[in-house]
Design goal:
The chain has 114 residues and is an alpha+beta fold. The chain has four helices and three strands; from the N terminus they run H-E-H-H-H-E-E. The protein is globular. The N and C termini lie far apart (43 Å). One of its GO terms (cellular component) is large ribosomal subunit.
Length: 114
């Protein structure tokens, strides 16, 4: 019997998946939007929302484990934590952007909410 694992495997090993999601989360924090596949966008949304919540609560050590970029770390705590101070959750939004020409994969744009 197959049980739900709670996350998408995305065709990658655990360490590769974690590294990819951490890198995508860093890119979203720096650029405030990223274009990727729908499945990856849904997974990285969990990571980014958790990072913003941790930054709002001032838990910087847990954020440092995920964000290796100092500029993204600084922006998260100085800009984004204050921007979303009164917002209880849902810091990202996913827009579907059609199909990718090469492999016909569904593409989405994930953005930080203003």
């Amino acid at each position: 019997m197959i049980k739900n694992t709670g996350h998408r495997k995305l065709g990658k090993t655990g360490s590769h998946r974690r590294a990819m999601l951490n890198n995508m989360a860093t890119s979203i924090i720096l650029h405030e939007q990223v274009e990727t596949t729908v499945a990856k966008a849904k997974e990285v949304r969990r990571v980014v929302d958790n990072l913003v919540t941790l930054a709002k609560n001032g838990q910087n050590l847990q954020v440092k484990d995920t964000l290796k970029d100092k500029v993204a770390y600084k922006k998260l705590f100085e800009v984004l934590a204050s921007r979303y101070e009164k917002r209880p959750g849902g810091f990202t939004r996913i827009y579907r952007a059609g199909k990718r020409p090469g492999d016909n994969a569904e593409v989405a744009i994930i953005k930080l909410v203003d």
